[in-house]
Specification:
The complex is a heterodimer of chains A (about 475) and B (about 350). Among the domains of chain A are: about 40 residues, no CATH class; about 150 residues, Aldehyde oxidase/xanthine dehydrogenase, molybdopterin binding domain (Aldehyde Oxidoreductase, domain 4); about 35 residues, no CATH class. Helices cover about 25% and strands about 25% of the residues of chain A. Chain A has 13 helices and 17 strands. In chain A, the strands form four sheets. Chain A has a seven-stranded mixed β-sheet, sandwiched between helices. In chain A, a hairpin with a 5-residue loop joins β11 and β12. Chain B has about 350 residues and is of the alpha+beta class. Chain B has two domains: about 160 residues, Aldehyde oxidase/xanthine dehydrogenase, molybdopterin binding domain (Aldehyde Oxidoreductase, domain 4); about 150 residues, Aldehyde oxidase/xanthine dehydrogenase, molybdopterin binding domain (Aldehyde Oxidoreductase, domain 4, 2-Layer Sandwich), CATH 3.30.365.10. In chain B, the strands form three sheets. Chain B has a four-stranded mixed β-sheet. In chain B, strands 4-3-2-8 form a four-stranded mixed β-sheet, with helices on one face. A three-stranded antiparallel β-sheet of chain B has the order 5-6-7. The longest helix of chain B is centred in the first third of the chain and has 28 residues. The radius of gyration of chain B is 26 Å and the shape is elongated. The chains are: A alpha+beta (about 475), B alpha+beta (about 350). Chains A and B meet through β9, β10, α7, β13 and α9 of A and β1, α1, α2, β7 and α3 of B.
C-alpha cells in the first residue's frame, strides 16, 4: 500500500516494529534540524495541542477579503423581492385589508396577508405572535401584508397601494399600568402579567429586623436594539417535490425549522433551513421573523423570494431588550455583611412573549448578585405592553439586574464608609457557596476576578 | 471641568438554558489525510464559535485547528443543535464535539492497536499521530490509521454524540433547584471622565477580569470581551429606543439611535482568570454574554465616584447627568472662592 509522506518523515530514520502485520515500517520522530524552518514556528492554527492557541478564525480570511457571502449577496435565477407593510399603529383592530390595487401594479407578482398563513401564530414559549397580523395589531411594527415584486423598489411602492382599515384602540405603554389588575388584558383572555417568578430563601422580614441598616433603591433600564451589522434576511425557494429551502439569518435553525413547518402546515421533513455566516445575532435572530412569509410568497409565485429588513424594520419589527423596573431593599450589618434582600422586578414584555420567560427566570435568579445572602425574596413579573416585543438579548436580563445590584452595593458601601472592593469581597460567593436557588456552586472565581481586576487597575497595590 | 472617577462591578452568569433541555449533537469524521470534519447544527453568528469547536475537536484527536473542517447550520446535513444562545456553544456544543471526537478516536485506537502491537488503552493521540503512551517513537500517523480503518478494517472512524447540561427543575413556590450546569464570574472596573459643565461622560479605561473556564482560544475571548464592553457602553450612556405617545418608535435609525463607534471605545485591558470547570470541554465554560453584563454598572459607579451623582435610570446621557449635577448644586449653596 502507498504511504503518504509527512513532514516528520523527511530524512527521518525508520524503525521496524516486528509484531504487527504488514504496515510495520514506521517513522521515528524526526530530529528538529531536518524540519523546514517554516514548520518550526507554525501559525497558531497549525499548532498542536490546539486548545489554548490564539488560532485565527476559520472564516477570517473570507471576512478579510470581503468574500463572505451574506444572505443579501444571494441571487437565485428568477428571484423576486419581498417587502412587508407595517401597521404603524400600536394597538388596533383590523377591519379590512385591501390589496387589489397593489396586486394590479406592473411588476408585482404576489401579495399575501395573515389569512394566507396556514397557522398564523408562533413563539418560543407562548404562541402569541402572528406571522402577519390579521385581526389585531399589538404594536406598530407588526406586519399586515407582504408583497413580492420583480424589484425591491416596486415592492416598496406597492406597500403604499395596500389599504388597511383600522379601529384604533388605546395603547398600553407603561408596564406599571399594565401590571395593574384592572387594566384590560391585551391578549384577552390572557392576563397582562404573562410570567411570574419567585425565589425564596430564609426569612427576609426576620432578617431585616435583625439588620443594623436597611437600604432601598429603585433602578430602571431602557429598551435597546441588538443592532447587528447584517439585518434579518431570508431567501426561500421550493423544489418540485414540495420541499422548501430557506436560507436565513437564523441562529437556531433546529427550532426555526419546526416553527416554519408549523406555520406553513407542512411536515418538518419538508423544510430545509440553511444559515449562512450570520452578521451578528446577540439574541435577535433566535426565532423566525419573516421566514414563513417569504416561503409563502415563493410558493405562491413559484419563484425564489428574498426579503431583507431595512434598518427601521430591524428596530421596530424584531425583538429588543426588556426594560426593567427594579426595586431593591437590603438589610446589612454595620460592618457591611448582607443579611437580607428583597427584590421586585417588572419586565416590559412588549407586544409578544418571545423569550420573556427565559429573561424573567434569569433576571430573577441572578438579581441578588454573586453574593451569599441567606434571606432572600425575589419576585419578577413580565407584562404585555403595546410596544416593540422584547426578547432574547445578550445577557437575558442580567445586564439590567447587574446595574441595579451593583449600584445598590456602591450606595451601601458609601453609606457605611467601606471601600467598594472590600464590601464585595466580604459578601461574594466562594467555592461551594449556595446560590439563591440552593445550587452548590463549583469553579467559583469571583473573588479572584475582583482581586485581579483591582490589582490590574491600580485600585489596590499589585503585590497585595 | 472634567472630573475623573472609577467604579467597579462584579457579576455571575449561567451557561445554557434555565432548566429546560438544550442539547447539542455533533458528528466527527476522521479523514484519510489525517484531517477531520465536524458536523454541527450551530450557526456562526460572528463570535468565532466554529473556530473554538474546531479547536476542541482537534485537541481530542491530537491534530491542529486548521486540520478540522467544520460543516454547520444546515438542517438537512447537520445534527440538531439548540443554537448560539445563552453563552452555550463552547460548553454544550463543545462537549458534544469533544465526545463525538472521542468516539471517532476510540475507533482509531482499536485499529492502531494491532498496528503498534499494543492494547487500545495504551495509546494516545498527539501531534497528528497515534502513539504508544510513554513510547512516543512508536507511532502511526493519524491519517494512516484512518485510512487503514476504512480500507483494511472496514471500520470508518466516525463518532457521534450529544450533550445536555444536567439541571434540576425549580420548585414553583420557592424557586429552589439547580437551573444551570455551570456559571461564570467577572469583574470590570471602569475609569471615566465626566464633564461637570456638559454632563458628558467619556469612558477612559476598562479593566475586565473574566472567568470563562479554560480559554479555548484566548484571542477570541479577548474579542468577545472587547465587543461586550462596546455594547455595555452603548447600554450605559447612549442607546435608547424612544416612543411617542401613540407607541411608535421615534428613532428607528442609526442617525438618532447612537451606537458606540471606535471613537467611543476606551482602553481595554482584558484579564482571563485562571479557572477550570471539570464539566466543560477541556475545562471550558463560556464567555459570550457575560462580557457585557457588568459594564454599565461599573461605568455608572464611576460616574458617581467622579461627580457624586447617582443615575438610577439608563442610559446616563449627558442631559441626565448634567441635570443631576445641577440638582445637586442647587441643594448645596454655591461657594465663591475668596480672592
Amino acid at each position: 500500500m502507498e504511504k503518504k509522506t509527512t513532514v516528520a518523515e523527511k530524512g527521518a530514520p525508520l524503525e521496524t516494529v516486528p509484531e504487527a502485520g504488514s504496515m510495520l515500517r514506521l517513522p521515528a520522530s524526526a530530529p528538529l534540524a531536518t524540519r523546514p524552518i517554516g514548520v518550526l514556528v507554525p501559525e497558531a492554527g497549525h499548532q498542536t495541542p490546539a486548545v489554548g492557541q490564539r488560532a485565527p478564525r476559520l472564516d477570517g480570511r473570507l471576512h478579510g477579503l470581503g468574500q463572505t457571502k451574506y444572505i443579501d449577496d444571494f441571487y437565485l435565477p428568477g428571484m423576486l423581492y419581498a417587502k412587508i407593510k407595517r401597521a404603524g399603529i400600536a394597538s388596533a383592530r383590523i377591519i379590512s385589508i385591501d390589496t387589489k390595487e397593489a396586486e394590479a401594479m406592473p411588476g408585482v407578482v404576489a401579495v399575501v396577508t395573515g389569512r394566507d398563513v396556514p397557522c398564523n401564530s408562533f413563539g418560543p414559549s407562548l404562541k402569541d405572535q402572528p406571522v402577519l397580523a390579521d385581526t389585531r395589531v399589538f404594536h406598530a411594527g407588526d406586519g399586515v401584508a407582504a408583497v413580492a415584486a420583480v424589484t425591491e423598489q416596486i415592492a416598496t411602492e406597492a406597500l403604499d397601494k395596500i389599504t388597511v382599515e383600522y379601529e384604533p384602540l388605546t395603547p398600553v405603554l407603561d408596564p406599571l399600568e399594565s401590571l395593574k389588575l384592572e387594566t384590560p388584558g391585551l391578549h384577552a383572555p390572557n392576563p397582562n402579567i404573562y410570567g411570574h417568578k419567585v425565589i425564596k430563601k430564609g426569612d427576609v422580614e426576620k432578617a431585616f429586623a435583625e439588620s443594623d441598616h436597611i437600604f432601598e433603591g429603585s433602578y430602571r433600564t431602557q429598551m435597546v436594539e441588538h443592532v447587528p451589522l447584517e439585518p434579518h434576511a431570508t431567501v426561500a425557494t421550493w423544489d418540485p417535490n414540495g420541499r422548501v429551502t430557506i436560507y436565513a439569518t437564523l441562529g437556531r435553525i433546529t427550532l426555526g425549522r419546526a416553527d416554519v413547518a408549523r406555520t406553513l402546515g407542512i411536515p418538518t421533513s419538508r423544510v430545509r433551513i440553511v444559515a449562512t455566516t450570520v452578521g451578528g445575532n446577540f439574541g435577535g435572530k433566535n426565532e423566525i421573523t419573516t421566514e414563513p412569509v417569504v416561503a409563502l410568497l415563493s410558493k405562491k409565485t413559484g419563484r425564489p423570494v428574498k426579503c431583507t429588513f431595512t434598518r427601521a424594520e430591524e428596530f421596530a419589527s424584531s425583538t429588543t431588550r426588556h426594560p426593567l423596573i427594579m426595586d431593591y431593599k437590603t438589610g446589612v450589618t454595620k460592618d457591611g455583611r448582607i443579611l437580607a434582600r428583597k427584590i421586585r422586578l417588572v419586565l416590559d414584555g412588549g407586544a409578544y412573549c418571545s423569550w420573556s420567560e427565559t429573561t424573567l427566570s434569569k433576571a430573577c435568579i441572578l438579581s441578588a448578585g454573586p453574593y451569599n445572602i441567606e434571606n432572600l425574596y425575589a419576585e419578577a413579573f413580565v407584562v404585555y405592553t403595546n410596544k416593540t416585543m422584547t426578547g432574547a438579548m445578550r445577557g437575558f436580563g442580567a445586564p439590567q439586574v447587574c446595574f441595579a445590584y451593583e449600584s445598590h452595593m456602591d450606595e451601601i458601601a458609601a453609606a457605611l464608609n467601606i471601600d467598594p472592593l472590600e464590601i464585595r469581597l466580604l459578601n461574594v460567593f466562594e467555592e461551594g457557596s449556595l446560590s439563591p436557588t440552593g445550587q452548590t456552586l463549583h469553579s467559583v472565581v469571583v473573588k479572584e476576578s475582583l482581586l485581579r481586576a483591582a490589582r490590574r487597575f491600580g485600585w489596590i497595590e499589585a503585590q497585595s | 471641568m472634567k472630573r475623573r472617577g472609577r467604579g467597579m462591578a462584579c457579576m455571575w452568569y449561567p451557561i445554557g438554558f434555565t432548566v429546560s433541555a438544550n442539547p447539542s449533537a455533533a458528528v466527527v469524521k476522521v479523514n484519510e489525510d489525517g484531517t477531520a470534519t465536524l458536523l454541527t447544527g450551530t450557526v456562526e453568528t460572528g463570535q468565532g464559535s466554529l473556530t473554538v469547536l474546531a479547536q476542541i475537536t482537534a485537541q481530542e484527536l491530537g491534530i491542529a485547528t486548521d486540520d478540522v473542517h467544520v460543516v454547520s447550520a444546515d438542517t438537512d446535513a447537520t445534527p440538531m443543535d439548540t443554537g448560539p444562545i445563552a453563552s452555550r456553544t463552547t460548553y454544550v456544543t463543545g462537549n458534544a464535539a469533544r465526545l463525538a471526537a472521542e468516539k471517532a478516536k476510540e475507533i482509531l485506537f482499536e485499529v492502531a492497536a494491532p498496528m503498534l502491537g499494543v492494547k487500545p488503552n495504551q495509546l494516545e493521540a498527539r501531534d497528528h499521530k497515534i502513539l504508544v503512551k510513554g513510547y512516543p517513537q512508536r507511532n502511526v500517523h493519524i491519517g494512516d490509521v484512518a485510512n487503514h480503518a476504512r480500507v483494511v478494517m472496514g471500520q470508518p472512524p466516525i463518532g457521534s454524540a450529544s450533550f445536555n447540561p444536567a439541571t434540576v427543575a425549580l420548585d414553583p413556590e420557592t424557586g429552589q433547584g439547580k437551573p444551570f450546569g455551570t456559571y461564570v464570574y467577572a469583574t470590570q472596573i471602569a475609569e471615566v471622565d465626566v464633564d461637570d459643565e456638559t454632563g458628558e461622560v467619556e469612558v477612559i479605561r476598562v479593566v475586565a477580569s473574566h472567568d470563562c473556564g479554560t480559554a479555548i482560544n484566548p484571542m477570541l475571548v479577548e474579542a468577545q470581551i472587547e465587543g461586550g464592553i462596546a455594547m455595555g457602553i452603548g447600554f450605559a450612556l447612549q442607546e435608547e429606543i424612544l416612543f411617542d405617545n401613540a407607541g411608535r418608535q421615534i428613532n428607528p435609525n442609526l442617525t438618532n439611535y447612537i451606537v458606540p463607534t471606535a471613537l467611543d471605545m476606551p482602553e481595554i485591558e482584558v484579564d482571563i482568570v485562571d479557572s477550570h470547570d471539570p464539566t466543560g470541554p477541556f475545562g471550558a465554560k463560556g464567555v459570550g454574554e457575560p462580557t457585557l453584563v457588568p459594564t454599565a454598572a461599573a461605568i455608572l459607579n464611576a460616574i458617581h465616584n467622579a461627580v457624586g451623582v447617582r443615575i438610577t435610570s439608563l442610559p446616563a446621557t449627558a442631559e441626565k447627568v448634567l441635570a443631576a449635577i445641577n440638582a445637586k448644586r442647587g441643594q448645596q449653596p454655591k461657594r465663591i472662592a475668596a480672592g
